[in-house]
Amino acid sequence: MAYSSSSLDISPKTLIGVGVGLAVAGGASYFLYHRYLQYRDAMPQKWRRVGTLQRINLFPIKSCAPLDSTPGREYDCDVLGMSIDGIRDRTLMLLDENNTMVTARGYPHMKLIKPWQVSDNGLIITAPEMPELELDFKNLESPGQDLRTSISGAPVDAKLCGDRFNKWFSQFILEKNTGLRLVHYPYPKPVKIICDDLKNMPFMRQEDSGTFNDGTSYMLMNLSSVDDLNTRLKNPVEPLQFRGGFEIKCDEHEPYAEDNWQWVRIGDEAVFRQVAPRTLCIVPNVNDNTGKRDVEGEPLKTLKSYRTFNHSSPLLGIHLGLRQPGKVKANDVVYVGEK
Ligand SMILES: *[C@@H]1O[C@H](CO)[C@@H](O)[C@H](O)[C@H]1NC(C)=O
Ligand SMILES: *[C@@H]1O[C@H](CO)[C@@H](O)[C@H](O)[C@H]1NC(C)=O
Ligand SMILES: *[C@@H]1O[C@H](CO)[C@@H](O)[C@H](O)[C@H]1NC(C)=O
To answer: 3-state class of 139 per DSSP?
Structure first.
C-alpha cells in the first residue's frame, strides 16, 4: 500500500529529521505571517486628510429607505453598527413564511417604505397609500420566540415584532394580509458568523459582521466614484442606490482610490479598518424614488465592464470594521491612516 520507509531506504531517523525540519519551517513562516498581519493590523499614528463625510445613511429596516440625514446630528458608531437615539442600522428585517429574508432583490418597491424618527426609540413608518405605522423599539411584542434565519449564508436568530407589523408589511409588499413577518435583532452584540464571501479576508473579525447587514456593519463609498460611473451611464444614478452608510466627498487631486485605504478615521474618534472590498448584488439597480428595477440592468451592467477585477460581481466602496468607537456627523473630516 503506502510506501514504507524501508522500501525507499530512508531511515526512520532521517524521516524524523525531515519531519522536524518541516515543522520548524512551517512554524517559522506561520509565526512570521502572523507578525506581518499584526503589523498590518496595528492602528496607525499618522493621519492624512482625504475629504469630508458628505452624508450618513442609516437604514433601520433592511432593504427599505434610510432615515433622513440631518446635518449636525451625531451618530454613535459602536461594534454593532451605527445608531442615533436608540434607532439602529439594520435591526429590523422581513421574513417570509419559510423564515427566508425578504429584500428589494425580490421586491424592489420595498425601497419606498420610509421610516421617520419621531422620538428616542420611536419610528413612524410610511409607504405610498398606506396608513402610518408606529414602531417603538421599547415596546415591541416579545413572545419569546426566536426565529432562525440566515443572511448571505450566515445563520442568525431574530425575534418577532408583532402581528400588526406583519399585516402592514404583507399588505404593502405582497398585497395580502399575511405572508411576511417583521423581526428585530435582539442581541447586544454581533452574533453572526462571518459569511462565506468574507471568510478569507485576513482583517475581518467576527464582530465586524454586525446586525442584519449583508457583510459588515459599516460601508463607505467615494462619491467621485459614483460621479465617474455617471459619466458612463445614459441615466445617472443616485449614490443612495448603493446603500452605503458613509458617503465621502474626496478632496481634489487625491491620488489613491478608496480601494487602497487600509485605515479610515472619521472626525476625532471613530477609527475603521478596511476589511474587504464591497461586491454589489442586484439591489443597486432599483431606483429609490420609483421602487422599480432598471429594465436595462443599469448601473450594474456598466460597472461590470470596468469594476469587476477578478470577482464575479462588480466592486464599489469598501467594507469597514470598527476598531475604535466614536461619534460621527455630516461634514466631519475623513482621514486615511499612514504607517
Ligand atoms: C416555502 O417553502 C415551500 C416548500 O419548499 C415552497 O413550496 C414555498 O413556495 C415557499 N414559500 C415561499 C414564499 O418561498
Ligand atoms: C474617488 O473616485 C475617483 C473616481 O473613481 C478617483 O479618481 C479617486 O481617486 C477616488 N478617491 C479616493 C480617495 O478614493
Ligand atoms: C486577476 O487574475 C490574474 C490571474 O490569476 C492575475 O494575474 C491578475 O493580477 C488579477 N488581477 C487583479 C486585478 O487582481
So the answer is: helix
